[in-house]
Structures are given as structure tokens and as C-alpha cells.
Amino acid sequence: MIKPFFALSSTLGQVLFIRFADRVGKGIRTSLRDAILADTTTKEERGKAFGFRRSMDTLGAALGPFVAYLILTLWNGSYQSVFWLSAIPGLIATLLLIIILKDKRNPTKTQSKVKTLPKISFKGLGSRFFLFTLITLLFTIGNFSDAFLILRAKDVGMAAEYIPLTYFAYNIVTIIFSIPFGMISDRIGRRPVLITGYVIFALIYLGFGLVHTVRGIWILFIFYGLYYATTEGIQKSYVADMVAEGQRGTAMGTFNVLPGIAALPASVLAGFLWQFFGAFTAFGVSSLLAIISALLMFILRI
Known about the structure:
By secondary structure, this protein is mostly helical. Helices cover 80% and strands 0% of the residues.
């Protein structure tokens, strides 16, 4: 809901503040949303549910740029109109949340909790959860910003106007396969699907380090959608399986924040490796970290 304020911003400081507030809001709502989804599904259908959520998120991400294009076309290139109109979906979502979604509360527990503030505790999350989070953290260190994929596409010779289409292509693949892979994880388990996703990521990033043709870039971006379909929703499902119902909010928040912290140093590391050792080294290190993460998942049987 804070994005419309971009239309009123006139300085870099204001933009940075709004952007920071937007990221804080995302951090709050993402963990709570994941916890609610976990609590309202059974283990037998959780992968499908998180796959559906991932699919719908990606659909919004794919449609957003086209809607922005239409607004800019109709309002003569007015970026302020894009930001103001972006408030409408947020308002609708908020109203639906207030009207439709209701918390299930135990009256006795609610009354007792009014007298004392809740305590933050990580004791009940378990070693299995923390091992999985640390493996994900290691993987994230190699999963640098997608801006490097754009840079690689330009290096190979892809025209700038085609790059958004490659993103649209991988988003479509993610939309199509997120639910099926979620259902597969419900049947065979989360771990095999996640290991497959890490291996796919490793092969794709190795491919980005080796690719020399525009056609190769297209193929890699398409398969990049399979990586998202086999990991994003499945990871959250796996976390929900590991912890008890009353601790899923804490678990989701912890799981989201640690890899989130690693995102910045991951991109810094990638930039350093690219600048001093070349693109192949940067993508190769990422591929290696993904393989190590997959092996740890396999050997430790997290």
C-alpha cells in the first residue's frame, strides 16, 4: 500500500525511504501469509497449496509489466498514474482479507495471553529446521541477483527489448509447473523435489557461464522457470512440515530473514568474481554452491 507514495516523491532520500518501508511490509506479510497457508492445509495437500500460491504470485508478476505498459500508453507516459493505480489491487486485497479471512482462536488461551506479552522463542523449532535453513542460506549465497542474468544476456548479444520477454517466458513456465511439482512433493516428499530444483539451478547457472548464443539464453531462461517451480513453494511447505502449528509464524519469519540477509553479500560476491575472474567463474561458483547444498540435503537426509 505504500507504493503509491512513489508518485509524490521528489528526492532520492524519499524514494529510498519508501522502498525500505515497502520491503519491511513485504517481510511482515510474507511470513504471516505463509504461516496462515501452512495452518490451513494438511501435510497431504500442502505442496499443492504452496505451489498454487507460487503460481498466482508469478502470474501477478508476469501481468504487472503489461498492465503498467497499458497505463503508460493510456495516460501519455505518466509514471505517477502507474503508482496511484497500483493502490487499487492492494486495497481490494486488504478488504478481502478483512471480510473473508478469520482467525481461529481458543477463547481460554486468548484471555490468558492478554495479561502477558508473547515471548519470542526458537527452542521448539528443532535442529532439523535449523539445518535446513542453514543449507538454504548456503544456497542463497550463490543465488545472486537476476540482474546478472540480464548482464549476461547483453554480453552474449541479446537486444535489450527482448530481455523482458525472456523473463515473461520463465514466469510462464513457473506458473504452469508450480502446482504439478507441489503435488508431486505431496506424493514423494519435499526433499527429492528440492534436491532436483537445486541441481536444475546448478546446471542453469553453469549454462549461463558457458553460453555464447542468444538461442542458448532463451533456453536457459525457460528452464530457469523450472527451478522456481521446484523450490520456491516447496521450501515453504517443507518448513511447515517440520514445525508444530503454533510455531509456524516464527519458523517462516526465521526462514525468510536469514536467506534474505544473504542476498546482498551474494550479489557483492558475484560482482567481485565477475569483475576480477570473469562471468564463468561467477556462475561456476554459484553452480558449485548449489551442488553442495543438494549433496548436503541428500547426505544429511534433512
